[in-house]
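Contributing new complexes? Match this layout with iron/sulfur cluster.
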Amino acid sequence: MHGTIFDIKRYAIHDGPGIRTTVFFKGCTLNCQWCHNPEGIKFEHEIMFRPELCAAECWDCVPRCPKKAINENGTIISIEQKKCDLCGICGDVCAYESVEIVGRDVTVAEIMKEVEKDRIFYDESGGGVTISGGEPLAQGDFLLSLLEKLNEKGIHTAVDTSGFVPYEILSLIIERADLILYDLKVMNEHRHRIFTGESNTIILENLRRLSEKGSNLIIRMPVLKGLNDDPENIQSMVDFLLPLNKSRQINLLPFHRGGEGKLMRLNKKSPLVEFKTPSEKKLRKIKGELSSHGFHVKIGG
Ligand code: SF4
Ligand code: SF4
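Output block (do not edit by hand):
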């Protein structure tokens, strides 16, 4: 069985306890406009071009493209996505690593080989492996197989999910994951739909059911100025989360602009609005408000 991933990051310290390796699954069930990993949204492989690395006027890639998809205008190259079949030749040719195919199909054994390299760090720091994305549960069977193997090896596991998945899959995953990092983005259903492409009804219902089951959860809230940092949204979160006994830890993740450059590199459209990072003061205020209701709140992952 193969799964599709777009990255494996070692020494991660913001994706669960201790030192971790984070495996990023490719493909997501939501389409959040502020996503800082836009290369994880599409399930298929795609081509990414970094103009800032391109040593303009080398043009080595242009004649090597079998589909004649690369053009140069004397200053920079451009890639015609419709012609490109993702063969990867341009990436192999480019000495400046300016072009890259994002996404690779891997087996569980290949991932295990990579993540087991840092076993000593997991053991010493109380860390482990986090599976993120994209939406890892969108590749449910592959995720289950990977979790089973990690369980077998005694490696701590965390799964980062948007919750926008069928509960049947989620319930299988929580049996095998030590920790669920559950994203809670926007409480207002209409606003959630506008900025993520989907309603939050299933997400909230799944969170309620997971909590009833007593799953080990950390709520992760990306905080965006003007989108979800208003008192109404925070109050709405409190009203929803308070009755859920097992959801006491909330991590506030301030928005950062890391995804913007990637959108351009992937030749994707910019979001409808310009998202902004909330001020330190605002983050502390939200933390104080949530803490006053008994939640354990941390700013950062
Ligand atoms: S080979 Fe690399 S550096 Fe040269 S033109 Fe192509 S993308 Fe740019
Ligand atoms: S991936 Fe292959 S087809 Fe696509 S631009 Fe590069 S060389 Fe051409």
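Reviewers usually confirm one structural detail per submission. For this one: Residues 47 and 101 are 5 Å apart (CA to CA).
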